[in-house]
Amino acid sequence: MSENILDVNNLKTSFFVDGSEIKAVDGVTFNVPKGKTLGIVGESGSGKSISALSILRLVEDPGKIVDGSISFKGEELTAAKEPRMRQIRGNEISMIFQEPMTSLNPVYTVGQQLRESFKIHEGLGKKAGTKRSIEMLELVGIPSPEKRVDQYPYELSGGMRQRVMIAMALACKPELLIADEPTTALDVTIQAQILELIKELQEEIGMSVVMITHDLGVVAETCDYVAVMYCGKVVELADVETLFENPRHPYTVGLLNSLPRHDQDQDELVPIKGNVPAPDEMPEGCRFAPRCPFASDICSKLPELETQEDGNEVRCWIYTDEWDGEEVKVYDKEHSS
Amino acid sequence: MTKNTLLEVKGLKQYFPIKGGFLGRTVNNVKAVDDISFDIKEGETVSVVGESGCGKSTTGRAILRLDEPTEGTVNFEGKDILSLNKKEMRDMRSEMQIIFQDPFASLNPRKTVKMTLIEAMDIQNVVPKKERTERALEIMETVGLQKHQIDRFPHEFSGGQRQRIGIARALAVNPKLIIADEAVSALDVSIQAQVLNLLQRLQREMGLTYLFIAHDLGVVRHISDRIIVMYLGKIVEMGDTKSIFENPQHPYTKALLSAIPVPDPKNKSERIFLRGDVPSPIDPPTGCRFHTRCPFATEKCKTEIPVLEHKDETYAGQHDVACHYAIDIQEGRHKATHDMKNVRKVLDDESEEASASKEDVKQ
Questions:
Q1: How many angstroms away from the CA of A190 is the closest CA of chain B?
Q2: pLDDT in tens, A194-212
Q3: Which domains does chain B have, with CATH numbers?
Q4: Name one GO biological process term (chain B) (predicted).
Q5: ipTM above 0.90, yes or no
Q6: A275–B161: do the CB atoms touch at under 8 Å?
Q7: Does residue A270 belong to any structural domain of this protein?
Q8: Among A166-180, A225-239, A318-332, B248-262, where is mean pLDDT lowest?
């Protein structure tokens, strides 16, 4: 594997509310190879967004990173001081948020908001900043950028706002882009444009991407590697082809089986039974055990994320020597498709 | 087997006035739904798909008269429901119910499940008073909730469970037609699958008819018998699910289908990119409403409104399309006038066109 730009190891981020600790991110490990895209996929409450915010140290009180390491190009971010983090944010690591309406400031023009990052990170004045802003808007495909640069966010459509967000995120040519559900609020035709654009710009400036999403279609289209999260833990870490061809963790399989497909006919969906456990009722052992069709006695103990023979990793007892249940075939391709 | 038509919509229009000016007169209209016709047979599932602002939710609301339609007729079992008075309409609503998108906003937070269900039965007076609690428990079981949860408040349930309560409320009055307005969109996939399966089971067991309003084409393919594709207040294509997915004829439907990410890394679809955004429904484009974004548009498309009709003679089932060139495009006689495969090119063209039209205005 090539060199990693980001290594996250055993990251734990908790929220302290009313004297109790809610473990939103509970020992997460993943890495992003240089120039590649890592997808983080999971359902609501799995901790994927908090993991991303933790990387940029943007988790606010009462949340706190309690353990683990985040190494960006060898630099330990959990120990970095605030002024250094400010240098990194927007310059070396950038982030795009889900809601383009609330992440842009409504009382400043697009140009003013874009210029800000040029001013802070590159010390450019108004004139040079505006010129660069127009270039950036052009790069993300906004029609008549010289006019748009003086407009306010409300004058733009949802798709255009998200493109402005991307322009801001890419303004300083970051080495790592974290995109948190960048297209969830958009219509599919606009989503297709935005995803293609991110991919193209990624090749142009050679950046790495962390793509956070709940949409397995988006994962398949854009990612090289995927981390599947469930209840604050990574349950499977694999290259994208293996994940869809030969998923190992019962949760990953459950997700794939419950997905209604537009590209093929299906008889009946096979949902995962039950619900995600509440944070204060988290099972001691494998978090997925209460909903897992294969759960056995050993699942009351927490399995480790273990490397398999093809280099991918999975957190499940079935793939260990200690497995005490019957021999099972977790993913039955014939049955599923 | 020919089934009876349950719902028949003809020439439905829903305009929302924009007030303005000195006396607050109507200065213009948002033409949310503009002259659409379709019907639904008993026991069928018909889906309305389209992007935000295409009028799909408005259609659902207009049928139930939650917003009073501007023009057109809606027949339910042969009865014109737009001519009913308030009281008659209220009775009518026991036949047709709606499930909303947001399971958090559509339940009264101060009412327990029992109160919510019994209220629905009270209003419609469909079940004898004494049997209502019994009936509520029965419905709870039907939708997969535990009987002991009946005295709980909405906040004690998860999103998926709340959506089940929404379904239970709709079922409480024994409706024939259920309009599901993005009923599963807010749910995580694993829960979404549970609710979809539940809806299908209820249809089998109770012979329900669904009008499904959704933007997720995976969900739509899975659940529907027929599909209606809307764009900017108009139906652009309508037909059997299989035919729509395997042989889309309208350029918009093609673009829409190609835009959905395929959950299979080895089988990436070839994209058709559209230029620009959906135009404003206040002042929709003349002729075919899609012509401003359509790669195949000609002068004819700018002036003549295409009629929704059956064009593909080889297909025996229902498949109507509103496009002048549907068959010509399919048989390769009509080519695209601008690029649609390369996103950069599409965006650059659009940019060029925008600046060209701006210069026109200046001169």
A1: 8
A2: 888 888 889 888 899 999 9
A3: 5-230 (3.40.50.300), 267-362 (no CATH)
A4: transmembrane transport
A5: no
A6: yes
A7: yes
A8: A318-332
Of A44, A160, A193, the CB nearest to B273: A193
Which DSSP state fits A150?
T
The secondary structure of chain B, three-state, reads CCCCEEEEEEEEEEEEEEEECCCCEEEEEEEEEEEEEEEEECCCEEEEECCCCCCHHHHHHHHCCCCCCCEEEEEECCEEHHHCCHHHHHHHCCCEEEECCCCCCCCCCCCCHHHHHHHHHHHHCCCCHHHHHHHHHHHHHHCCCCHHHHHCCHHHCCHHHHHHHHHHHHHCCCCCEEEEECCCCCCCHHHHHHHHHHHHHHHHHHCCEEEEECCCHHHHHHHCCEEEEEECCEEEEEEEHHHHHHCCCCHHHHHHHHHCCCCCCCCCCCCCCCCCCCCCCCCCCCCCCCCCCCCCCCHHHHHCCCCCEECCCCCCCCEEECCCCHHHHHCCCCCCCCCCCCHHHHHHHHHHHHHHHHHHHHC
Q: Which of residues 250-289 of B touch A (CB under 8 A)?
A: 255-269, 271, 273-274, 276-278
A-chain residues near B358 (CB < 8 A): 144, 147
Last residue of a domain, one of A173, A207, A222: A173
Quick check: B165 contacting A, CB < 8 Å? no
List all residues of chain A from 264 to 283 with a beta carbon under 8 Å from chain B. 265-266, 268-273, 275-276
**Which structural domain range is residue A150 located in?**
93-173
> Phi/psi at A279 (nearest 5 deg)?
-55, -30
Contact A262 B197 (CB under 8 A): no
Task: Pick the range with the lowest mean pLDDT from A94-98, B104-108, B269-273.
Answer: B269-273
Q: Looking at the complex, does the CB of residue A195 fall below 8 Å from at least one CB of chain B?
A: yes
Q: B191 at the A interface (CB within 8 A)? A: yes
Q: Chain B: give the shortest CA distance to residue A320, in Å.
A: 26
Task: Establish if A323 belongs to a structural domain.
Answer: yes
pLDDT in tens, B211-229: 999 988 999 999 999 999 9
Smallest Cβ–Cβ distance between B217 and the set A192, A255, A262 belongs to A262
Domain count, chain A: 2
Residue B200: closest CA among A268, A270, A262: A268
Residues 150-169 of A with CB under 8 A from B: 157-160
Q: State the best of A187, A203, A224 to mutate against chain B, taking most chain B CBs within 10 Å.
A: A187
